[in-house]
Amino acid sequence: TREIRLASRPVGRPTNGNFELAESPLPALEDGQILVHNLFMSVDPYMRGRMNDVKSYSAPFAVGKALDGGAVGEVVASRSSAHKEGDVVVHSLGWREYAVVDGSAATPARTDLAPASAFLGALGMTGLTAYTGLLKVAEFKPGDAVFVSGAAGAVGSLVGQIAKAMGASRVIGSAGSPAKVARLLELGFDAAFDYHDGPVVEQLEKAAGPAGIDVYFDNVGGEHLEAALAVLNVGGRVAMCGAIAQYNSTEPTPAPNNLMQAIGKQLTLRGFLVGGQRQHAAEFAEKMAGWLADGTVRYDETIVEGLENAPQAFMDLLDGANTGKMLVRL
Ligand code: NDP
């Protein structure tokens, strides 16, 4: 199979030279395994962290070895009683065209509910992150005013729409271009701004008005988190989901400088990983399927063609070229 390997560890922003397209023989299937022809693979911001040689919540990628990550594909051969040829499954051996996967590590994708790609996005890990981050981590309740950064991205766009669907008093999003801001308003956000247009705190204060915000869903960190801390109401909650403004940093980043706000305002800042939220997967899947079916929640996809373009898709994701979920079609 063709696969993408990590050729070297990026320092700062990744470049083409950090990746290598290679060919690898497929091992024969053992009992319990399936052969999957990948249809789509996911590129995700967290993969940037795994390219560094540091101990973290997920092991670093090895130099000279294929990368991995979420993928959805069709079973083309099976020695597992759990999956048969023709089934569509989600698994974690992306960055290659064909994958030999343990049957127990593959989950059926309900393609009667949505196209296969949705199981990497709105109906997959991305959707579960948005749903649980907002409802379980930030403990959103109806009437809350919500601010989400990275709002035109895969997770952020779902967070805003879920908040609206569940009775938010106001949903505010920030994103990196005028087109993304326009898209957020189409998706039902009450207000949106381009963070390049001026200090985030000023734009957020204006968008929130005197009512302030009760929940901040943080995908970005840095200046965005600092602004949210300034604007949050007493008793406000922050779901710390990501800090993409820092993923390529080679130096520690100073913001937020106002963490002390958390004391006087009695704020809750709670970090989370979607992997720790799996107990809510069934509840999430049922709710999200309903919202997609009745049009309450819509999702965008940015699709790049071909495995050979996966490194570029990943680099473009970090640069904000995507609206909604960034995917590679294999
Ligand atoms: P997105 O679809 O949101 O893509 C990333 C986006 O980040 C880009 O499109 C870009 O949009 C934005 N961005 C890049 N650099 C900056 C910057 N310096 N400042 C502000 N925005 C920037 O990705 P995901 O939806 O997959 O992930 C969103 C966040 O959620 C990430 O931080 C990710 O690590 C995190 N995450 C965390 C999980 C968890 O378990 N805790 C699980 C999944 C995701 P723009 O044009 O607006 O700049």
From TrEMBL:
It holds the Pfam family ADH_N_2. InterPro entries: ADH-like_C, ADH_N_2, ER, GroES-like_sf, MDR_fam, NAD(P)-bd_dom_sf. The keyword Transmembrane does not apply. Keywords: Oxidoreductase. Its EC number is 1.-.-.-. Residues 17-328 form the Enoyl reductase (ER) domain. One of its GO terms (molecular function) is oxidoreductase activity. This is NADP-dependent oxidoreductase. It comes from Arthrobacter sedimenti. The lineage of its organism: Bacteria, Bacillati, Actinomycetota, Actinomycetes, Micrococcales.
